[in-house]
């Protein structure tokens, strides 16, 4: 009993230091709310995903109809389904805002925090791709076929790697079973990485909009920032509930409401909206291997931020940095738009120009930051 009480006291004191007594910069604004919003999104996705898994059948003949059964016959199954589907979009909205805020305010100076955050982004993107295949609609099937085929660009082992992922010589039942298994397991890896991310964050402290050391002008996390986080969560939750109840398919693709048919190719194959910028970069490179490398670098380039060494205390104070950052945001949005366009002129040429500008802006940002312009 005594050892149990001591363990409980240690746990409570640890949670208190983690969530209540944590010194936090007094100047951080609502732009720092996206961390708690991401925790909320992860909780929604895991909780709804566990209930969806109870009714999902990972078989090519049953997967599509199992979701129809879930939405029509299971009590509130439609609510779980739409919360999970729209929760993925909310997850990426918060992720992109979180990364953007880190770039704008120079949070990448926290080496381990930024690196673990980029790893979380990669894991979430992989998990989302696996989940997009599970409904086994037309876009799910053909999206899986196109994206997994990219692995064949890997020298020497490419074909073997594709066949291993497929579990055969084409996208089929073994592929669906493997994707479901990994989609179920990866969120728990994300949780583990989030814990690592938070441990690094609590070791270094949050960055400050003022660009000062995080120990300067610090206050306890509770109640100042818990109230901010709770307010942000309630506002976003109301927005999600509105979308789920009124416009549940606003971001869905109509092709995915048709069961997968290997004999019928959709007129225009495209991924979910949160992958469109990377898809536009992929198809802007004529060479298959070059396209795959560009696709991977479009995310891994965020690791370049780790070697940034600024010559000024706060990035947002520099007019040059602000111009570069907002140009990067515009290019990101334009690439997202191009990714949804057909593969034809002038969209192909515009995508190639925007791809060059996307990578060039990161190089200019590194140069500007290196010399403290």
TrEMBL record:
Gene3D superfamilies, per the entry: Cytochrome Bc1 Complex, Chain C
Membrane topology: Multi-pass membrane protein
Record-listed a ubiquinone binding positions: 202
Co-factor requirement: heme b; heme
Residues annotated as transmembrane: 36-57, 78-99, 111-134, 179-201, 230-250, 289-308, 320-340, 346-368
Stored SUPFAM superfamilies: a domain/subunit of cytochrome bc1 complex (Ubiquinol-cytochrome c reductase), Transmembrane di-heme cytochromes
Major subcellular location class: mitochondrion
Residues where heme b b562 binds: 84, 183
Subcellular location: Mitochondrion inner membrane
Residues in coiled coil: none
Binding residues for heme b b566: 98, 197
All copies of domain Cytochrome b/b6 C-terminal region profile, residue ranges: 211-373
PROSITE patterns per record: CYTB_CTER, CYTB_NTER
Xref: InterPro entries: Cyt_b/b6_C, Cyt_b/b6_C_sf, Cyt_b/b6_N, Cytb/b6-like_sf, Cytochrome_b, Cytochrome_b_C_euk/bac, Cytochrome_b_N_euk/bac, Di-haem_cyt_TM
Any one Gene Ontology molecular-function term assigned to this protein's record: metal ion binding
Keywords: Electron transport, Heme, Iron, Membrane, Metal-binding, Mitochondrion, Mitochondrion inner membrane, Respiratory chain, Transmembrane, Transmembrane helix, Transport, Ubiquinone
A single GO BP: mitochondrial electron transport, ubiquinol to cytochrome c
GO cellular component, as recorded: mitochondrial inner membrane; respiratory chain complex III
Residue span, Cytochrome b/b6 N-terminal region profile domain: 2-210
Subunit architecture: The main subunits of complex b-c1 are: cytochrome b, cytochrome c1 and the Rieske protein.
Cited function: Component of the ubiquinol-cytochrome c reductase complex (complex III or cytochrome b-c1 complex) that is part of the mitochondrial respiratory chain. The b-c1 complex mediates electron transfer from ubiquinol to cytochrome c. Contributes to the generation of a proton gradient across the mitochondrial membrane that is then used for ATP synthesis.
Identification of the protein by name: Cytochrome b
Name of the encoding gene: CYTB
């Amino acid at each position: 009993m005594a050892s149990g009480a001591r363990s409980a006291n240690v746990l409570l004191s640890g949670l208190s230091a983690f969530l209540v007594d944590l010194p936090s910069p007094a100047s951080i604004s609502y732009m720092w709310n996206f961390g708690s919003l991401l925790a909320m999104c992860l909780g929604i996705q895991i909780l709804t995903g566990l209930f969806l898994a109870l009714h999902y059948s990972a078989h090519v003949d049953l997967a599509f109809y199992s979701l129809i059964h879930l939405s029509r016959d299971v009590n509130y199954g439609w609510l779980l389904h739409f919360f999970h589907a729209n929760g993925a979009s909310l997850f990426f909205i918060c992720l992109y805002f979180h990364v953007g805020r880190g770039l704008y305010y120079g949070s990448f100076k926290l080496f381990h925090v930024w690196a673990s955050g980029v790893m979380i982004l990669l894991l979430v993107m992989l998990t989302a791709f696996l989940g997009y295949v599970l409904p086994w609609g037309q876009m799910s099937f053909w999206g899986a076929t196109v994206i997994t085929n990219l692995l064949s660009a890997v020298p020497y082992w490419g074909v073997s790697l594709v066949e291993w992922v497929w579990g055969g010589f084409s996208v089929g039942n073994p592929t669906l079973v493997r994707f479901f298994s990994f989609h179920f397991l990866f969120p728990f890896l994300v949780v583990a990485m989030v814990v690592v991310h938070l441990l690094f964050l609590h070791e270094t402290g949050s960055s400050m909009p003022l660009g000062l050391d995080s120990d300067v002008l610090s206050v306890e996390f509770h109640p100042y920032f818990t109230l901010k986080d709770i307010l942000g969560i309630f506002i976003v939750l109301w927005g999600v509930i509105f979308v789920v109840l009124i416009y549940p398919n606003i971001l869905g693709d109509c092709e995915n409401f048709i069961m997968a048919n290997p004999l019928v190719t959709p007129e225009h194959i495209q991924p979910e909206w949160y992958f469109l910028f990377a898809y536009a970069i992929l198809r802007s490179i004529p060479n298959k291997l070059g396209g795959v490398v560009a696709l991977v670098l479009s995310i891994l380039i965020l690791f370049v931020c780790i070697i940034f060494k600024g010559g000024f205390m706060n990035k947002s104070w520099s007019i040059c940095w602000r111009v570069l950052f907002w140009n990067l945001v515009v290019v990101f949005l334009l690439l997202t738009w191009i990714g949804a366009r057909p593969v034809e002129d002038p969209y192909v040429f515009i995508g190639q120009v925007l791809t060059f500008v996307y990578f060039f802006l990161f190089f200019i940002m590194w140069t500007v930051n290196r010399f403290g312009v």
